[in-house]
Amino acid sequence: MPVKILVVIPTLTDDPMETIESVVGQTVEVSKILVAVGSKLLYRRLAEANLDNVEYVYVRPNFRDPVGKRVAAALNVALSKVRLGDYDYLLRVDADTTLPCRFLEENLKADVDCVGRAGYAMLIKMDSFIKYFNGRFVEVGSEDSYIVLKLLSQGRDVISWMLPPRLKRMSGVHHPWRYYFVRGVEMYKLGYEPFHVLRTLLHDIRSLFMVLGYFICMLRRVERYEFAGWTFRSQVHKLIFGNMA
Fold this sequence. Notes:
- Helix content is about 40%, strand content about 15%.
- The model has no long low-confidence stretch (mean pLDDT about 90).
- By secondary structure, it is of the alpha/beta class.
- It is globular, with a radius of gyration of 18 Å.
- The chain folds into 2 domains: about 5-165, Spore Coat Polysaccharide Biosynthesis Protein SpsA, Chain A (Alpha-Beta Complex); about 175-240, no CATH class.
- The two termini are about 35 Å apart.
- Helix 7 packs across helix 9.
- The chain has a 7-stranded mixed β-sheet, with helices on both faces. Strands 5-9 form a two-stranded antiparallel ribbon.
- The chain has 10 helices and 9 strands.
């Protein structure tokens, strides 16, 4: 019996048609595609396409929220339109990402709870998504990292892609300073240890805002996520022994 795959694609202003085409062109057929659109103009234009098994949902974005929280909120509105238990897998893919035609075929072979450690393309078993997240994306600043670390802390299997997606643009080039600050806040809440955060300065000077966000949270003793202790121990283990727990 073929697997049933629900696809969700969030977009603010990026035209998702190339992403949709790459999903439709998979060697493993998907059951339904939901596109959460944050622009009325783009929503109207997309709705005119009237593609089979593709549903567009307009979600008015709250620009006061971090990007990750906005994305998660939009995805949850889209997911409310369907019965999640009717599907075996959830594929969450960004509108600035395309998938090789055998992406699903190869990554399904892994048979794990989640394939993909980055939000722009994550293939998640639906029963795990329902069990550990109540069938909703957690509306936080770094919803993809939250999913990965939550599953790992529960002893579930999360791996990188067997066959990776393709980003249509270089990651991170368009992000303002506030993005990095929020990322630092999220790294603190997720449980990352300080040395992990400080090392990011070696790769990008904008990470200074990330470090600032992290240490402000540390000084204020901001509440962390429930699995933060597991993350901290795993990162310390990695520092000492050179591998992830």
